[in-house]
Sequence to fold (461 residues):
Amino acid sequence: MAPFFFLFFGMCLGDGGYGLLLAFIFFGAIKKYGMVGESRKFFAILGLGGIAAILVGVVTGSWIGDMIDLFPFFHFLAPIKNAPAFLDPLSDPITFLIISLALGVVQILFGLSASMIHNLKKGDKMAAFADQGGWIVLLVGLLLCGGGASGIIGSGPMMLGKFLSWTGVIVLVTTQGRHKPTLIGKAISGVLSLYNVTSYLGDVLSYSRLLALGLASSAVAMIINMLADLLGAIPYVGWLFGALIFLGGHLFNVAIGVLGAFVHSLRLQYVEFFSKFYVSGGRGFDPLRHKTRHVTICEGAE
Amino acid sequence: MEFLGIALVICGAALAAGFAGVGSAIGVGIAGQCGAGVMTEDPGKFGLVLLLQALPGTQGIYGLLIAFVAILKVGLLGGGTSVDVGVFQGLGILFACLPTAIVGFISAIAQGKTSAACIQMIAKRPEETGKAVILPAMVETYAVLALLLSIILLNGIQL
Fold:
């Protein structure tokens, strides 16, 4: 789950310059203050998220908004920035949306597979093949059908998709009611289980937040740059106001962006991903021990 | 008549920034009142309380963002030459601003209430901060979806 989290975090922040700032601050803090325990883990998560944001920035060509293109003294960086950038979410949001949703499909299928393996290990072959297997086959089949209908893939895969979808439907309808006592009960709950396809649709659409948050942070960055540029045009004192807006605005945007990216990536993990395989319940084992806040106990030191 | 299109765009931008901002102000206010109560008992929780209080503030930023995108689109920002906007294009932009305005207004208030409840939760159980941050984020989902729709619509309107 960790790689997904960092990727989502990077896409939500969506800016290489902010990523650099984050990685610098949090890894610097770990190094400088020699942090241990929970806070070190937390700082490392944010730092790694920053690195993911740098990678996303490389792909989208967003470095503190459009700073490199807007301000003349950064123009020398433009060739380096433009070389690997092939996707601009501001001018082509639909491609980015499709990438976000595709990531969602990948993660949901991954979660279903994890659940299937778990059931197989428990020896519950019926649940593995009927519950998770049926859904995986149906979802992949529907995706192939959708791809074929919109003309992205040829008719061969589309036939395969139709075949897979019907196989999935048959498996689900015949098996989902297997715990019901009567034949009619079995049939009804088998058919009704197909209704769950809407919940999978909702889960996948939920990943569109990756696009929305990424767009929001880079658009706000762009607007801050523009305001700084406008103020910079005031004679004599303009550069001072411009620099103040630039620094203050971007610090504010980083703070808000990190909060949003962290919270929403976490939500995608908890709500959309965990629900596919995670069985909740129980209580954490919390043995009687010394809990210290400001003292670190070193094992084996005299 | 020739300025009606521009006026409609300004109306949309004002609605998005205004309503989402009002919602966020109310939401942050509700969470802040609760946070002040918690901090009278334990001032050390300031960091956590501030984090939770800030969560309903994002709707206002989304509204401002949509307002900026709308006025950028018609060239009102930066004193540049303004684009010729027809009445129906102006109406379209006004409607495209509405999801962020409406959903931002109401969801920020709801999120403020959830944040307030979560601030009370961390007053008793500060170790559960991760869960306390998730619950308000569930509300924010719908503001994010509205923002997404507004951006896609604004992007799609041809001038």
Summary: Chain B has a mean pLDDT of 90. Residues 4-41 of chain B form the longest helix (38 residues). The radius of gyration of chain B is 19 Å.
